[in-house]
Amino acid sequence: MRESECQVSMDSITSRCSPPLLCLSICSHWLLSLFSLLLLLGFLFTALKASDFTNIGAANNLAESLRLNGDLQLAVKLLEHTMTRTNQSDLSGLLEHALGGIHEESRDFTQAGKWYLTAALLQPQNAQYWLSASTLSFQAGDGEGEGGGGGEVDWQVAENVLARGLSEIPLQPDLLFHLGK
């Protein structure tokens, strides 16, 4: 399917679909499956703008698309702007975890750890957030991170974070495994 055919099909869908944000979401998933990143970015931005930058799902999807496209700084700005527009009323930790991932990818390990921990504290029942906050994934670094973390794991911090996660989710297998229990 050519790009012009995609645009005609999407226009047809959005003209018949209600509510508009649902249409944009459907078309976004469709575009992603067709690997049309430029159209996808436009659709996700339209959905986010329509929500006055308060739709955390649209913000997360757009930031992830920007990250995949290599535009890490714009992804961070987008997530931070969405956080200010929602007055930090989102308690899912989704935006914070996304910011952690972007900072980790840009090798700013100090900021990544802070955002991951914020996400874990917002969603204490989410084991993946605790694992991310433990900084265990940072050990693959070569010591040249710009955020001062250098990509090396602080084992004491990792153990403390995992123990805190285990206190929130007792007997959680992934946390127990990473704690060596």
Explain what you see:
- This protein is an all-alpha fold.
- It is elongated, with a radius of gyration of 19 Å.
- Mean pLDDT is 77; it is low at 1-8 and 141-149.
- The chain has helices at residues 3-16, 20-34, 37-50, 56-68, 72-85, 94-105, 109-122, 127-133, 155-168, 173-179.
Report mean pLDDT, rounded to a whole number. 77
Weakly predicted, low-confidence segments: 1-8, 141-149
What percent strand?
under 5%
Rounded to the nearest angstrom, the radius of gyration is: 19 Å
State the helix count: 10
The helicity comes to 55-70%
What's the oligomerization state? single chain
Class computed from helices, strands and strand pairing: mainly alpha
What is the overall silhouette?
elongated
Distance between the termini: 53 Å
